[in-house]
Amino acid sequence: MEARIIRRSLVTIAVGLAMGSAGVAHATNGYFSHGYGTKAKGMGGVGMAISQDSYAPGINPAGIAGMESRIDGSLAYFRPERSVTFEGQPTIDSGSKNFFIPSLGYVQQIDETRSWGITLLGNGGMNTDYPQPIFNQSGNPPGATTGVNLEQLAIIPTYAQSFAEGRVRVGVSPIISYQRFKAEGLGDFAGFSVAPEYVSDNGTDSTWGYGGQVGFQADVADGVTVGANYRSKIRNGDFDDYRGLFANGGEFDIPSTYGLGVSVDVTPSITVSADYQRINYSDVDAISNPGSNLFLGQEGALGASNGAGFGWRDINIFKLGAQFEAGNDWTWRVGYNRGQNPIRSSDVTFNVIAPAVMKDHYTLGFTKAFGEQHELNFAAMYAPSQSVTGPNMMNPAQDIKIEMKQYELEIGYAYRF
Asked: Is the pLDDT of residue 335 over 60?
């Protein structure tokens, strides 16, 4: 009875915290995080074929099949340093560099082959806060700042089951999405929009959406596991307050993804894992339509059916991680994540407000267990500076450079029932 009350209380608190603080600024693999869960983040984000906690459905829902009952909570300190340089002018740094991002997960074991759970994870990354107007100032009030903030929360209830004496695992998740968006200082683009009053400075708008995913894992030999996951496009309601900014009258869905992975126990204490992931930004016109559509006339105007967007391309991501069980309940991890930059030089202008240019991510982490029920987890990530330079769409004789580097520290606690 007491354990049941504790579980219900923890889940209630988890949902409340997550709903109050959707993840922000995760511009690592585009606007997706490099990994989900403290253990996965310490290994470069791998998780298709290795699942170690209740965050597993963020990468592959099959990973919780038969998993023990547990709750995981973590808090990340994320610091992206973003800047823009207009040729011949001083560099402008974006403010709001420090973010604290919670993640929560819960798994309830049904029996040795079945488990269900709920995971709450955040994305973001289209996040900038420049202290001044960075385009022309004619369409902005005195003292205006420039920037956008996109926050996305995924609520992922999951059911997973193992077959063939536990060698094959399958999981399925409906996905509930909650998004918030705000734009400031973009008034100079109102003249290029089908709905000029809905381009900028309309406060924070929010939408709900839905999608789903399915995944599997299979032990193909002693110590060798393969895994795969497919997540559908998540269809969200339109940002009506910004229907003059985003294509198709404010439409802003979340793109589909898929991935494959393999994990190998090299020795009884050393495991090496590798993942491949594809993010299909072309699913979403507001993200993938090129900025040059702005010059197609009414059909390419901001907010139109073929409206100008950020010009992001689909990207491939490769992740490699290793962990070493050192004894005395210590486990150490390292990893590397190599993602493509989704932004072409021809689309730099709009991406001044969304400079998601990162490629390389270096990670490390550890777990310290305390008895059978408690774990302390830690992960760190460093993404060195990357930049893209291209012509100013409004003044082709001038180049613009966007640049970013990142740091992240995450600490987590797990309790196993």
From this structure: yes
**Average pLDDT estimate for 341-355:** 93
State the Rg of the chain over Cα: 22
One-letter identity of residue 184: E
What is the rounded CA–CA span in Å between residue 126 and residue 223?
Answer: 40
**CB atoms near residue 53 (< 10 Å):** 27
Indicate the domain borders of the chain.
2-416
Beta bridge partner(s), residue 274: 262, 320
Q: Name the CATH superfamily, with its identifier, for domain 2-416.
A: Outer membrane protein transport protein (OMPP1/FadL/TodX) (2.40.160.60)
The pLDDT assigned to 137 comes to: 55
In the prediction, which pLDDT does 1 show?
A: 44
Asked whether residue 132 carries a pLDDT value surpassing 90, the answer given is no
Quote the pTM value: 0.92
Q: How high is the pLDDT of residue 408?
A: 96
